[in-house]
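Can anyone check this?
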Amino acid sequence: MKVSDILRVKGNTLYTVEPDQALADAVQLMADKDIGSLVVMAHGDLVGMLTFREVIQTIVRNGGSVGTTRVRSAMDDHPLTCTAETDLDEVRRMMLDRHARYMPVMESRMLMGVISFYDVAKAVVDSQNFENRMLKAYIRDWPASEDANPTAQL
């Protein structure tokens, strides 16, 4: 299974912010849209990722508020990325190694979408459920053969 399979199901709604925007505005957007991450774009290029993790770390550093902090000061400026052709097993390994919950999907320099650890886990579970249903159907419809009958050999 590839990242493109997740993007096809997930849709293509993307939320972005610019690095010089107020962190408070970014947090408000995350709350309004009920999302856990924002892609940080500058002049059409990916420059970072802002997730609830970076927001919480910034709030702790600022003594309980975001204050006048800009997105640039809070964002992860070296986010993991993948392509639509990246295999999901590789994405899982990358996300687990870096404790990343969100990953931008890039094609050259174009942002194609963002996948979350939830998206990856759901895709794996859905795939396993499909495979289990197919195996159960195969076993249930197993053709009876004469060799399987122990009394036929006597």
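Reply from J.R.: I decoded it. The chain is about 45% helix and 20% strand.
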